[in-house]
């Protein structure tokens, strides 16, 4: 049976893809070569993601109005409005800490590869963003229960790799070793948090 020749993508799709690849290549070049470009790029990303998180946390909290958050955080409502507006304000670490405390959550500021930052941004959704407050944080309130839960999750995460390795008969020792290492690490953590019980 003869197959029909495969149709190539329409010309405008090819042009669009070429333009996208070209723009991405240019962006990568600028980010690699210029500290000013990297600074502007990171500031732009943070200028959108931080306000979005503040707004998402406020809307999901016990203080859905900006004035409620302002009162609890000891800030003016107009500042909260600025913090929730992309690019409107530079938020200091002190202010972020105050907002985190008002939301009853923690705050992590860490340096990461650009790819990790972009991956997080791509997966981020203001509608889905939620952080467990301290009153509901089982890992904080009962570390023993949390450690047992993490061990179960780790084993569940590694099982498909073990099954795949057995089915493919390759690297069974590697997958089994990872499982044992994860179990050992979790048990050591459990012993430390439970005082050796």
Q: Estimate percent helicity.
A: over 70%
Count of extended strands? 0
Largest sheet: none
Shape: extended
For the record, the CATH class of the largest domain is: Mainly Alpha
Distance between the termini: 71 Å
Runs in which pLDDT lies below 50 for 5 or more consecutive residues are 190-197
Number of domains: 2
What fold name stands as the CATH topology of the largest domain? 434 Repressor (Amino-terminal Domain)
H/E order of the elements?
A: HHHHHHHHH
Describe the structure.
The structure is a single chain. The protein is mainly α and 197 residues long. It has two domains: 11-129, 434 Repressor (Amino-terminal Domain) (Orthogonal Bundle); 140-193. 70% of the residues lie in helices and 0% in strands. The chain contains nine helices and no strands. It has helices spanning 11-33, 35-60, 66-73, 77-84, 93-103, 114-123, 138-141, 143-168, 172-193. Helix 3 (66-73) packs across helix 4 and helix 8 (143-168) runs antiparallel to helix 9. The longest helix has 26 residues, at 35-60. It is extended and about 70 Å long. It starts with 10 loop residues before the first helix and ends with a helix.
Q: In a nutshell, what does this entry contain?
A:
The protein has 197 residues and is mainly α. The protein is 70% helix and 0% strand. The chain has 2 domains: 11-129, 434 Repressor (Amino-terminal Domain), CATH 1.10.260.40; 140-193.
